Amino acid sequence: MKEAGFPLGILLLFVVALITDYSIILLIKGGNLSSTKTYQELVKKTYGLVGYLILSILQFLYPFIAMISYNIITGDTLTKVFQRIPGVGVDNVLTDRHFIILLTTIIFTLPISLYRDIAKLGKVSLLSLVLTTVILVVVMVRAVTFSPQVPKSENAWIFAKPNAVQAIGVMSFAFICHHNSFLIYGSLEEPTLKNWSQVTHMSVALALIISVAFAASGYMTFTGYTEGDIFENYCRDDNLATFGRFCYGVTVILTFPLECFVTREVIANVFFHGNLSTVFHVVVTVVIIAVATGVSLVYDCLGIVLELNGVLSATPLVFIIPSACYLRLSKERWNHSDNLISCLILVLGVLVMAVGFVMTVLHPQECSHGKEMFYCSPSNVSLHNSTLPP
């Protein structure tokens, strides 16, 4: 919303959701047409070794960078939660983001990521969804109770802003699930295109509702001061926000293993013909998580991570590759609706990827990680308001 403008941002959310829904189903249609059971097999059969390697790199990078962003979120949110515990001062080890990231990795994300069957994470995913709903309620309540305390930025309600393409990258990051679609499709009791379409429609619709509610509530509260991690916007002494941070941190910890599954599968397919022995399964998992954790320990600006991952990894996986594969495999006439829509999505994806990357490099998001926002102090709000033009 901040990058695109509020009205255009809402419109773009719906557009990206529709494209996501369509391309997920298109991906499985392509798998059925080519008799393949993984995203990588589909691209290899359609575009040969070069296409396979490009996809493998993208399919690895997206969840891997997502893991880095999840660690950044964990470090940001849980440190502020522990600061609210009586007796825990700013010098306490529990307020150190590096310690928290290492602690949650060793105790939670690494052990859960060592599972071999993605279906075993079903209950974990359900808990994550429940917590997401709780977080949404917190953000909506604070939109009503905290919004009056936050001054509105200049041009807060303008229809469109120049950085709209960067917003599409972030939205693509939020909606993408193509990299693990075949894994989930194969876990269905009856993996048919009809069942898959129903699951996809319900999942994307729910994701859209939650995303619109989150984005609207968050932006209406903070307008142009909105951070890449929205819980950076709330004051540290806000107990409801602290509860939301706790739920947010737990949700991210529970989502982390899903991305690890995909990165590990990509490595298994490229280097081990799809099969990992027990020893290599453990070694590969530990190495992936260790590298992701190491990067997240030295870099902590979430907004840029989301934008770059969106335009460079998510956009090709959502817009470009499913459409390109289907167009290559389709036996329908060129003017068939699926072919025409696939062409449109393909062209749009190329534009978003190219323009979004240039815009992100030229106009990177500012990062005020760990700072208390000015409106948390009434005296600062008064001073800020007095400096604004009439």
From TrEMBL:
Pfam families: Aa_trans
Compartment(s) of residence: Membrane
Molecular function in Gene Ontology: L-amino acid transmembrane transporter activity
Keyword annotations of the record: Amino-acid transport, Membrane, Transmembrane, Transmembrane helix, Transport
Membrane topology type: Multi-pass membrane protein
One Gene Ontology cellular component: membrane
TM helices/strands, residue ranges: 6-28, 49-73, 98-115, 124-144, 164-188, 200-222, 242-262, 274-299, 311-329, 341-362
Amino acid transporter transmembrane domain mapped to chain residues: 1-361
InterPro entries recorded: AA_transpt_TM
PANTHER family, sorted: AMINO ACID TRANSPORTER, SODIUM-COUPLED NEUTRAL AMINO ACID TRANSPORTER 11-RELATED
This protein's name: Putative sodium-coupled neutral amino acid transporter 11
Organism whose genome encodes this protein: Geospiza fortis (Medium ground-finch)
